[in-house]
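Table S2 (continued). Query chain:
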Amino acid sequence: MFNGLQLIDVSAPDYRKGAYGHSAPQAIDLTRGVVQLRNQGGQLIEMDLGQADVHVDRTLASYAAGFRLQDGVADIASPVVTVPNASDKYWTWDKDDTFQLVQDMATSAGGAVKEISMRLSNTAFQTKQFALQAFVPTEVQANADAPINPTLAAMRRIMNAMMLAREARVATLLRTTANHANVTTLTSTTKWNGGSGSNPIQDLFSIIEASLQPVTDIIMSEQAAHDFAQNAAVQKFIANKQAVPGLPRLPSDGSGNGNMSQFSAILGLPPIHIAAMKMKTASTTYSYVWGGDVILLHKPPNSVPVDGQDIAASYTFRWSGGDVGDAASKGGFIVRSFFNPYRGPRGGQQVIVTVNDAEVMTATTVSGIVVGAHQ
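Corresponding output:
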C-alpha cells in the first residue's frame, strides 16, 4: 500500500492471470513506467501526459500584427503653409497683370504715355479645428501583456484617423470639378480602363496645355495608374519611341511611385504620384481615397510664394499657435497626454491631438482634372 493506494506490478504473472480481479483499480507498470487506472468495470484508463496537460495557451510576447496606411499625397496636392493666426487673408496679384496683351503702346517724343495699373486682391480664410482623443484606463495599461502597448496604440489610432481625414478632405477639394478651370470628363468609350477610344496621354496633354502655369505634379490613384500603364494607346506610344528597351513596370506592393518616373520621362510628363491610400466609409467596402479621377496641378519650387510671381493650385493654411501649457505646437499639431483621475475607478491616460487647417484652392487656372479615368 502507498498513501492508501495499492500498487501492483502488472508484469507479475498473477496480475496477468487476473488473480487480483478488479479489487485494485490502481496499478503501476514497472516495466514501462506507465501509471494506469482501472474503473470498477475493469476498463483501462491511461494516465500518459499529453501536450495539453503540460501547456496553457497564451498570447505570444513577440508578435503583434496590424495594418498600416499607405503614404498619402495630401501634402503634395495642398502644401502646408503655417500661419500665425487662426484666420487671416492672403494676397494674390491678378493673372492678367502677367498675361494680358497691352494695346496702343506707341507714342512719340513729348506725347502721352499710356498708363497701366496693378491689380491686387485678398481672400479670407478661416482655419477649422480638428481634434480626436482616446482614453486608456489604468486597469487596461497595467494588465497588458507584451508586446501590447495600449497608450502607444491609442496615439497611432488617433494619428492614422487624422491623416486619413486630411487626405480625404484634400481629395474632395481637388476632385470637385468647380475648383478647376480645366476639366476633361471621360465617357465609357474614353475611360482609361477599356475605353475603345481612350487616349490617356492626350487627356493629360490637353490640361497641361490649358494650364496658366507649368503642371508640376500629376496625382492618380493606384487603379488609374494601373489603367494608364496597361492602356493600349500608352503602350503603343512608348513602343514607337526609339531606344526604349521595354515597357516600365509598376510595383506590385504599393511602395510609392515605383517606375512611374520612367513613364513620366518617356512620355514627357511631369512626375506622376500614385495615391495608394484606401479608406472605409459607412459602407462595408474599401475604396481608394482619390477614386478614379486624375489631378494635374502646379506648385512653386519653394513652399511659399513671396515675390508675387508664382502660385499654387492649392494650399493648406495651418495655424501654428495655440500652445496649451506644456503642450507646444509642433508643425501645427498639438498633442496632449495626461493622467485623468476622473474617469473610471483608477483613472487613466488621456491622449488628445488637435490641429487647425484650412484647405483652399488658391488658383483654379493652374490645375485640372480628368474625371472618370477609371470607371
